[in-house]
Design brief:
Layout (H helix, E strand, L loop, with lengths): L1 H9 L18 H10 L35 E2 L6 E2 L7 E5 H6 L15 E4 L1 E4 L3 E4 L15 E5 L2 E3 L12 E8 L13 E7 L8 E9 L3 E11 L4 E12 L3 E3 L4 E3 L2 E15 L2 E16 L3 E4 L28 E2 L5 E18 L2 E17 L11 E20 L3 E21 L1 H6 L11 E22 L4 E24 L13 E9 L4 E14 L7 E12 L2 E2 L15 H4 E2 L2 E15 L2 E13 L1 E6 L6 E22 L2 E15 L17 E13 L2 E16 L9 E16 L4 E8 L7 E7 H4 L1 E6 L4 E9 L1
Parallel strand pairs: 7-10, 14-19
Antiparallel strand pairs: 1-2, 3-9, 4-6, 7-8, 9-10, 11-12, 11-42, 12-13, 13-16, 14-15, 16-17, 17-20, 18-41, 20-21, 21-22, 22-23, 23-24, 24-25, 25-26, 25-27, 27-28, 28-31, 29-30, 31-32, 32-34, 33-34, 34-35, 35-36, 36-37, 37-38, 38-39, 39-42, 40-41
Length: 786
């Protein structure tokens, strides 16, 4: 709690959005106007490539804006420091400078330039996860881990509500596509995203400050200080704040929604006890408090997920919204997303002889209180909520060595995860319609509290053997034993007038029934990897590889439906439990630095699932569950970089996935497509720099295109996004010494309207919820390295 209090005190200098009020208009409208005047200077994307002249590097890793060929990015995908081009895995990697230059401020934005990768928001701004090559999770319940593992500084983050963090003071990020089971702590069937933060050093005092002023009165600030405390001791403090007005107008209350109000702090202490022994303590805290409940109302009174524009909704007071303005709505209830994340970790690194030993100890908590105006109307009908209180402990021991021919990594991983959660609704309208909220049974809402626990232990290892100068063999195994326990109960609840969350202390349980308390699940699984690498001596800069990966994911439990009219109230344990899934992944790839100014990477894959885990609606009930089916997919990714001239950089990314999902309950005999999986996604950028005075002026432009995809296995107009293209732009000036820069950036230049999540409620209350991505956004950014 000390770090939380420190973070809060630190950011008192930034005006904090009160929950029910807008920020002060004193937040310099003149500065905002200046940024908008400069916005016509368009372009954006890949950051300035590093200058080969080390003397030009700034004190905190600043880089000269002038490119000198394709930049090499260091990755740790095989648990050792390597050039990304030397690793036989499909990787999209970015340095910290690239993240800054692209204007990424949130972890989910990393997906923009990674082929076949999509950021998933299954519950608006509440939860986050990634989808890679059709491996996705749209389960919005809090007790489900994503098949895409997320790490920060080697520490696994299990909770989706803990992965929407601010990006600040970053060293880099790498996105690994394909099953990851033989090298990292937590096994993952779809891939992983690993964020690395800047670390303290004992070399020199360093400091940086970055400030952005953007649309809708947004103010983003981040700073970092590296403080040597002696020859063997150093500390680093990193801070970030993101404040701003909302861009969704609530016409009913004259408020704005989806505002920015988040801050984060990270403190690291490095102690190099000897040349062969070091300790790194990391303490971090983050919080978010935003006004939610901003789904766009779409009339669909005939059910079936088919919009009925212009038709009044009798269930919701004959409401209608036909203005076509997705940035405005009529909400009688102002929702909220309050999230509080805290964590601390200790990394111990030691070298004994030819072996490197690493111990990673981590403890983290996530507390979240989310509620929305589900019906998205002025009618007080149903407000859905989620609460999450999770504690996680993990311990990893790892040993590695490298010789002339061998590279070996082996380790143990332990995870203990416990979570107390609840879902339900404050629902006076719904409760009345189904015969509750009466003098005999005065319930005006529902609640499904649950407790879950996961205890996992695994032994893993991978060895690479260099047969000769051209051929190398890689093999790896992981053995996993995992136990999961779950208990849940259905309750009818009375919420007092003015109740704002599912944690209201005055809430009363009117009736409690339908306890779901299944026997614990105990899964024992194997994961593995076989691979061959080929680096022909006749062709410089070429790596070809072929691999087989067996990825696994344990089984689990689903929440019972919360529809009191459902015949499933007796609880079907078979339907509410699902088996482990296994993914056999076959991949071939090619990485080729054709010249210092031209690079191309290509990967093709085929996936064959057994007991594919899919999230779908209950047959005949209000609620959803994870069920087992079968699936297979194939596709490819192409990434290319070019620097035709000294000052021109180009990049292209192409992803293709064809996936077929079958044998799903409720869809017998049908072939479905995985959620959040467009068949094609493309991205590209162009950057040009030219010298002016003591620095370079840089113009950049980029785009990303996503084809049609779906937010549910049940494909209807309500659950379909037709596809969209986003254009971004940036212009800026970078000093030659890397100490300072000034840029103006516009994202979504064409103000494209695109859906990032929908919920089909047409068969229940005759409407569809639609949640859209951000509108056009311009920011003025200033960075200085001391």
């Amino acid at each position: 709690m000390t770090v939380r209090q420190f973070a809060t005190a630190t950011f008192n200098v930034v005006e904090e959005d009160a929950f029910m009020s807008r920020p002060s208009s004193a937040r310099s409208s003149s500065i905002r106007s200046s940024a908008l005047i400069l916005a016509f200077i368009l372009s954006t994307a890949l950051p300035a490539a590093a200058d080969d002249n080390d003397d030009d590097d700034g004190p905190l890793g600043g880089v000269d804006a002038r490119p000198r060929g394709i930049e090499e990015v260091t990755v740790f995908a095989q648990r050792r420091e390597q050039n990304s081009q030397d690793v036989g895995i499909a990787i999209t990697a970015m340095s910290g400078e690239q993240i800054n230059a692209l204007g990424f401020t949130n972890a989910q934005e990393i997906a923009t330039f990674a082929p076949n990768v999509l950021a998933v928001q299954p519950n608006g701004e509440g939860n986050y996860s990634f989808a890679i090559r059709g491996v996705a999770n749209n389960d919005l319940t809090t007790n489900r881990e994503s098949p895409i593992a997320v790490y920060v500084d080697d520490m696994y983050i299990s909770q989706m509500s803990g992965t929407g963090f601010l990006l600040f003071d970053m060293e880099g990020v790498e996105v690994l596509r394909g099953p990851q089971g033989t090298l990292f702590g937590r096994n993952a069937t779809g891939g992983l995203v690993h964020f690395r933060t800047a670390k303290p050093t004992t070399d020199d005092f360093e400091a940086m400050m970055r400030m952005s002023l953007g649309s809708y009165d947004q103010t983003r600030i981040q700073g970092a200080v590296n403080l040597p405390l002696g020859e063997r001791l150093a500390a680093r403090l990193s801070l970030a704040s993101n404040q701003g007005d909302g861009y969704i107008e609530n016409r009913f209350t004259n408020q704005t929604l989806n505002n920015s109000n988040e801050q984060a702090a990270r403190f690291q202490l490095l102690f190099d006890a000897t040349d062969n022994l070091s300790f790194l303590l990391n303490v971090r805290a983050a919080e978010q408090d935003i006004r939610t409940g901003f789904f766009e109302y779409i009339s669909a009174v005939d059910g079936g997920g088919i919009p009925t524009p212009g038709v009044l909704n009798p269930t919701l007071g004959n409401y209608i919204d036909n203005d076509g303005d997705w940035t405005a709505g009529d909400y009688d209830f102002t929702g909220q997303n309050e999230a509080d994340v805290f964590g601390t970790s200790l990394t111990v690194s030691a070298t004994i002889g030819a072996w490197d030993f690493t111990s990673l100890t981590d403890y983290q908590t996530v507390e979240r209180d989310y509620i929305e105006d589900t019906d998205a109307t002025p009618v007080n009908y149903y407000n859905y909520y989620q609460t999450n209180d999770a504690q996680q402990f993990s311990q990893e021991f790892r040993a590695s060595t490298t010789t002339d021919r061998w590279s070996i990594v082996t380790g143990l991983f332990y995870l203990d995860l416990e979570s107390d959660d609840s879902t339900g609704g404050i629902a006076p309208g719904f409760s009345t319609d189904i015969g509750l909220n009466t003098p005999e049974n005065p319930a005006n809402g529902d609640r499904t509290p649950s407790s879950s626990s996961t205890e996992s232990f695994s032994v893993f290892g991978q060895a690479e053997y260099q047969l000769n100068e051209e051929w190398a063999l890689i093999g790896g195994l992981r053995w996993i034993t995992e136990e999961k326990d779950f208990v849940s109960q259905r309750q009818d609840v009375f919420f007092p007038e003015g109740a704002r969350t599912g944690l209201d202390p005055n809430m009363e349980v009117v009736d409690a029934y339908v306890v779901f308390d299944p026997d614990p699940i105990e899964d024992r699984m194997w994961a593995g990897r076989l691979q061959v690498n080929y680096t022909p001596s006749q062709v410089d800069g070429l790596l070809a590889y072929a691999s087989y990966n067996l990825g696994v994911r344990s089984g689990g439990f689903s929440q019972p439906p919360f529809d009191p009219t459902s015949s499933l109230l007796g609880v079907d344990e078979e339907l509410l439990s699902f088996d482990p899934e296994a993914l056999s992944a076959y991949e071939v790839g090619l990485k080729w630095d054709i010249s210092p100014s031209l690079r191309t990477n290509l990967a093709a894959f085929y996936y064959d699932y057994e007991d594919y885990q899919a999230y779908t609606n209950f047959p005949g009930a209000l609620g959803s569950a994870t069920v087992n089916g079968q699936a297979d997919s194939q596709g490819f990714e192409l990434e290319a970089w070019a620097s035709p001239t000294e000052r021109l950089d180009l990049r292209l990314g192409v992803g293709y996935v064809d996936i077929a999902v079958e044998d799903i309950v409720g869809f017998e005999g049908q072939t479905l497509r995985s959620v959040n999986t467009p068949e094609w996604n493309l991205s590209g950028l162009i950057k040009y720099s030219f010298p002016i005075g003591p620095g370079d002026f840089v113009v950049q432009a980029d785009f990303s295109h996503t084809t049609e995809h779906y937010f549910s296995l049940d494909v209807t107009p309500a659950t379909t996004e037709d596809g969209y293209t986003l254009f971004n732009a940036l212009a800026g000036y970078y000093s030659n010494d890397g100490r300072w820069s000034v840029t103006v950036q516009t994202r979504n230049i064409t103000d494209e309207r695109y859906k990032v999540q929908t919920f089909d409620l047409s068969d229940w209350i005759g409407m569809i919820e639609e949640y859209y991505g951000r509108p056009r956004w311009t920011s003025l950014n200033v960075e200085y390295n001391f």
